[in-house]
């Protein structure tokens, strides 16, 4: 059995529909307000659970086990966020409650489905080395660790995990100036968008980004998502590409999280990278056609039944 541990953020997303993004000095009436469970970590765990079929957690058929580790505040929203993951069938016993508020966001979504996100990190900034050691304690060689960049102690987690023989997948989102200094040699799969790829390599062209990632991290695979231009993959001499599907964009929030969860979940289930790219691309396309973050993530059954066509 493959085990996936996701050490990541949990946020309550306050999503405001707006006619346009707020401008400096402007007061703008929103069209609606809805609250959704979110956080890049939580969204990716939901995607992992939906791709690996965790609803059958006690079944003999189960081959992939998903656990989420993170920290929430003591309020009702923290408990509700952990409950979302539990209901998906993810193991939540590594989610700890700390004093103070949980993470939350204020998200503006425009009529064409674009978003911008203001993040209050809250309890997601309370992860420390002792916590990382604790949650990694039950994991070892062959297991997978998934990380984003929305919590503290990310570099320590990847370094410790690799030393224990875990395979590390890293989605450096949201990108910041600290990421290039992380223990990136510990990473087995990088999941990057163009901006993240540019920040890591200093290159601007997709092929140059992949070439530089390959030069610096010869043992890692890089998945580079390019929005409307699809996705590229490079692992040593193996190179793959996949296009995007035709879909009406309602809300792009968590599209990247859906892609990451489906790609890593598919790999954990033994799918070859080309198939993992296809499944992740379909899943992300479905996600952008729905409102919200975690709630927009499709199930594997929906992805397999999808009739979406490539553009
Ligand atoms: O990637 C989307 C997520 O980013 C949202 O759910 C929000 O919480 C922010 O973390």
What is the rounded distance between the termini? 37 Å
The proportion of strand residues reads 25-35%
The low-pLDDT segments are 54-58
What hetero molecules are in the model?
A: alpha-D-ribofuranose
Number of beta strands: 13
Radius of gyration: 18 Å
* Arrangement of strands in the largest sheet: 5-4-1-8-9-10-11-12-13
The biggest beta sheet reads: 9 strands, mixed
Number of helices: 9
Q: Would you list the SSEs in sequence order as H and E?
A: EEEHEHEEEHEHEEHHEEEHHH
Q: Summarize the amount of helix as a percent range.
A: 25-40%
Characterization of the model:
The protein is of the alpha/beta class. The protein has helices at residues 40-52, 76-87, 129-136, 154-163, 194-201, 206-216, 255-268, 273-288, 300-305, and strands at 2-7, 11-17, 32-38, 64-73, 91-98, 103-109, 115-120, 144-147, 167-170, 187-193, 221-225, 231-235, 238-242. A nine-stranded mixed beta sheet has the order 5-4-1-8-9-10-11-12-13, sandwiched between helices. A four-stranded mixed beta sheet has the order 3-2-6-7. A hairpin with a 5-residue loop joins strand 6 (103-109) and strand 7. Helix 3 packs parallel to helix 4 (154-163). The chain is globular, with a radius of gyration of 18 Å. The model is unreliable at 54-58 (pLDDT under 50). Bound molecules: alpha-D-ribofuranose (RIB).
């Amino acid at each position: 059995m493959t085990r996936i541990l996701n050490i990541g953020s949990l946020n309550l997303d306050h999503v405001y529909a707006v006619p346009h993004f707020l401008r400096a000095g402007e007061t703008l009436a929103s069209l609606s307000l809805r609250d959704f469970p979110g956080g890049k970590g939580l969204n990716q765990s939901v995607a992992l659970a939906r791709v690996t079929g965790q609803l059958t957690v006690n079944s003999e058929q189960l081959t992939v086990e998903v656990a989420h580790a993170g920290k929430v505040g003591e309020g009702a929203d923290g408990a509700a966020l952990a409950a979302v993951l539990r209901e998906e069938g993810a193991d939540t016993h590594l989610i700890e409650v700390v004093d103070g508020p949980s993470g939350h966001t204020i998200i503006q979504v425009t009529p064409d489905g674009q978003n911008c996100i203001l993040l209050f990190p809250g309890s997601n900034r309370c992860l420390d080395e002792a916590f990382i050691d604790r949650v990694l304690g039950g994991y070892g060689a062959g297991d997978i660790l998934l990380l984003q960049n929305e919590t503290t102690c990310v570099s320590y987690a990847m370094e410790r995990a690799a030393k224990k023989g875990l395979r590390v997948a890293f989605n450096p989102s949201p990108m910041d100036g600290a990421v290039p200094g992380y223990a990136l040699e510990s990473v087995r799969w990088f999941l990057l968008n163009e901006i993240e790829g540019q920040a890591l390599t200093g290159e601007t062209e997709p092929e140059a980004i992949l070439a530089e990632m390959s030069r610096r991290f010869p043992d890692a695979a890089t998945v580079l998502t390019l929005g409307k231009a699809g996705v590229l993959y490079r692992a040593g001499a193996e190179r793959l590409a996949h296009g995007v599907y035709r879909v009406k964009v309602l809300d792009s929030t968590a599209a990247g999280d859906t892609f990451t969860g489906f790609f890593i979940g598919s790999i954990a289930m033994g799918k070859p990278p080309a198939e993992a790219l296809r499944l992740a691309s379909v899943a992300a396309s479905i996600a952008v056609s729905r409102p919200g973050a975690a709630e927009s993530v499709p199930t594997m059954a929906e992805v397999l039944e999808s009739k979406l066509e490539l553009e």
